[in-house]
Structure prediction request, 225 residues.
Amino acid sequence: GENVEQHPSTLSVQEGDSAVIKCTYSDSASNYFPWYKQELGKGPQLIIDIRSNVGEKKDQRIAVTLNKTAKHFSLHITETQPEDSAVYFCAASKSSGSRLTFGEGTQLTVNP
Amino acid sequence: DSGVTQTPKHLITATGQRVTLRCSPRSGDLSVYWYQQSLDQGLQFLIQYYNGEERAKGNILERFSAQQFPDLHSELNLSSLELGDSALYFCASSVVSDSGELFFGEGSRLTVL
Prediction:
């Protein structure tokens, strides 16, 4: 089955700096790559996703890039703010009813 | 608020006991997923139901079982509980069974003493 690896497990940045989280996946048939943010005491929430026919997608301060050849994708957060502090999960899945396989998560801390 | 409701939010029980966790999906969502999140670990997929039928199975122990009812709510039954079963159990729902956004509930925190 699919295996998703995520790095780093913890990331600490100063407010205003950029943060990058990287993931690799094993199944070349995977074609959907979402990122979820989990705040303390809450369930994960989708923040951005990308499909395999697109190399990059942006939404304000958040961007995701995908390299299908290398089987890796990354989350980029620019101009970080303290409210960006949370656990971020990458995930991958195939279409046709396959469920999401999540990475282990990255604890992002943005220091004021 | 994701629209997914999980009960109970917290549950403390003893080893060997049995518990039932309940999930009400978002209105109109046919798919329900159960995930386990242990301390310092990611989200481990347990099982998926689509419109009442089991669609996919992950690393779910034989001591665990689930079902989705005609009104689309789902229950996860955990029996012969062990200390290692202590975790956050999340339910998520989506519109269709294909890949797409999952809407997660706030989880049920199970503590086995």
